[in-house]
């Protein structure tokens, strides 16, 4: 409805027997506020000009002025006042004459949404008093001069966040006079990690700088033996991003009155980040075909995705886990909730939360792809958000797992979290939300189970250490990696780990005991598998080593299966089959090399250049089976970025991106993207093709926006080659 609705229409609200007013979940909609609210009949001689009247309101909203500086909101590209809750800010009111406290009476009104109500926190009258109480709404005069007064206004530390409309109301004997609707005085109120009374309070300044104010981050990918990293531009301060993030809460239909609660905001956001339920922000695609959209690996940051969604209101194509997590991180930091992006290596995607992933082998020891349903993701990215958990017992506040990647439904929707990291570590998975699912992602065991011809299942091997063996995030204040595995789990094999597992099982995580199946571990012979470091497009060798610890001679029949996999562990195709027999002498080691040729894998390769090798070996004399699996990543060449001359804010500069095609084939449909928060908005360029061994050079002219240390991030995408990145730290001088 527009603001010009006539009075008769206004009274015809849709009737609903349950509630007197319709649901209020749009921050954008407004109601009409009368400029003169009469108490009754107004006498003929009444002239509003005889009373105190507001001539102008000054919000101190420029980035260099007191409010944005003190509230750490000076980086937002947004002309309006942005403050954080539970902390005082200042405004100046100019009246038509000097203010007389003895006789004049005025107050402020902050309104949000179409149906403002005081008990819902969407209508907030603020009276002027002598003292400000911490964390409660109030205002006091701190300076009077001529016809002007300066007010210090304190907002509540639990106030709802979003965009408020501001009115000044003056009391006269015959009614209330209000200022006219003026969007220039709109005030955004955000979460405040600097305020001890706020649910998202964080006490370390370096951490606040990183988890709230840093607009660039690092995504760790690859696999546990070959960790790779790339930068991601969060861009939470860029133009229109704050409005786009508020729109996400409207889209998720979160009642305005619930928007002061970070738990609720995280839960609805984890559903609206993906498009599975309510046409959310990003459509996921894991099948290597990205028609009518952008390949997940091509994105360099969140800004393009959020702005496209904000304008089109349709899901943006396409994302995979790090894209969901990158956009979610932008959303959280933008609203003021401290957040970080997490990578869990060898992440269990277990379809029934029984802490057990089954890999089925046939009676020869080869993997049976028909029966094997569970998958191990090379890595999976999610987010942690920092907040207190008053809904849980003491001790479970702090970092909470939230995950916007659609994997499983939770209460009927694709969403996950917030789940307390502390609760996951100690096995207290009874505490909401979705803790059993996250517990399984980091703690499952892999069962190698052989199906005999009569249908009996024999467990040949249980791997208890493969899943969740490394959990990492970016370090505070740098681009390095921090291992946070110990925040999620106790050391493998420790007493505490067993106790946490028993607790999780007690609280309903299903765990099949080994007693349910026949299992005798095989101890005579050890098998190991190593792969040579390899660059995309070249041949490489893999080595299988047996160590016979017994005094017997054995012969083994060995199968190697090389598969091209999605990073989710799902096989696309088997590109290498190799089997051999070997003799193992007593108490000795033997190694066997197998060459993997580029011609065998290049035609089938997927974008993350990742292989999965299964090795199974049968000891012919005992019938026992050895099994191993390993992910292998190829080295993908990088983009080179360099700048010409010195970079000065506001002056034209130029940057050059170069790439040499290393493949034995021409690259077709090449797209380059370049962006840098605070430096330049995303620029895209398409190139038809790059022949083998030739170098592409792209020069971009731009005007750096802000001085300081910034980062440029580039990506290259082609039909045969994805996940090519480059980055450069640049120092931009003051003009």
Automatic annotation (TrEMBL):
Catalytic center residues: 321, 380, 403
PROSITE patterns attached to this UniProt entry: TRANSGLUTAMINASES (PS00547)
Record's GO cellular component terms: cytoplasm; extracellular region
Domain Transglutaminase-like: 313-406
SUPFAM superfamilies: Cysteine proteinases, E set domains, Transglutaminase, two C-terminal domains
Presence of keyword Transferase: yes
Subunit structure: Tetramer of two A chains (F13A1) and two B (F13B) chains.
This protein's name: Coagulation factor XIII A chain
Organism encoding this protein: Erithacus rubecula
